Amino acid sequence: MKASVLTAALTAAAICAAPAFAQEKKTVLSLDTAKKMAAACVKLATEQGWKMNIAILDDGGNLKYFERMDGAYRGSIEIAQLKANTSTMFPMSTKQVGDITQRVPGIVYVPGVVTFEGGLPIMTGAGEHIGAIGVSGARSEQDGMCAQAGVDAVKDLLK
Known about the structure:
This protein is an alpha+beta fold. The protein is 47% helix and 16% strand. It has one domain: Haem-degrading domain (Beta-Lactamase), CATH 3.30.450. The longest helix is centred in the N-terminal third of the chain and has 20 residues, at 2-21.
């Protein structure tokens, strides 16, 4: 009788402790995926004659991959990183952040927030935010086109 009570108590304790040991599975942006994104940006930029800086950050805002095309403006290095960082802080495009400033103008005073096109979040097919891409070097709408090319190039990998 004592053995069955002890077994029941240990089973109950194990069941109650199981959630504490369970680990949440999280999708991580791989270096290979980041490189494929940058390659797609470079391909489009080369075809169009644009010289781009491409920054890809993980969801924590850490630089995962950076590429500077020959002749790209040195000043655009930081802008590309800021665009990506904005889209890691807010899982939306930097263009959308700019649109929000029409209703919430104080956002433009937040250090490091970019409110013009060229930054996009990287989302899995399930809607998990795993990072962001920022592109700078041409007109903002062209930067946005390059960023979108990068995201589109890996959409099948992010399902």
